[in-house]
Specification:
With 124 residues, the chain is an alpha/beta fold. Helices cover 31% and strands 22% of the residues.
């Protein structure tokens, strides 16, 4: 099943449940938070099967010249599924904010992260 890469803020109980299922976890960062390996530098050798992140972790500030696609380019290149966490009532707005990369991520509400992650991992 590989490893689940996760951005800061991901529920630690979800990460613990994944570990208990025998799935490794790898902290990832957006290049600004100093949390873990920069998500944009993921390679096949990292053996990441899924990335979990909150929306705000892949959205640049207004003054930045980068966009969400830039943060998630390695996921797109290596066909790593991405779960983007946002309240369900804001999924459409979140997709708009993500721009063209939105078609390559799965929006998930906070209470569905574990179940959705497991479905994706079981398919990989």
């Amino acid at each position: 099943m590989g490893t689940v890469g996760y951005m800061e803020g991901t529920d630690p109980l979800i990460l613990t449940r994944l570990n208990l299922e025998g799935i490794g976890t790898l902290p990832l960062g957006n290049g600004f938070d100093g949390h873990g390996k920069y998500v944009g530098h993921l390679t096949r050798q990292d053996d990441v099967s899924l990335v979990i992140t909150y929306l705000h972790k892949v959205l640049p500030t207004v003054d930045m010249t980068i966009n969400a696609r830039d943060f998630l380019i390695a996921c797109r290149t290596h066909k790593i599924p991405v779960l983007v966490i946002a309240p369900e009532e804001y999924h459409q707005r979140a997709r708009e904010m993500l721009g063209d990369i939105a078609e390559h991520v799965t929006m998930v509400s906070p209470n569905s992260v574990y179940d959705t992650a497991m479905k994706i991992l079981e398919r990989s």
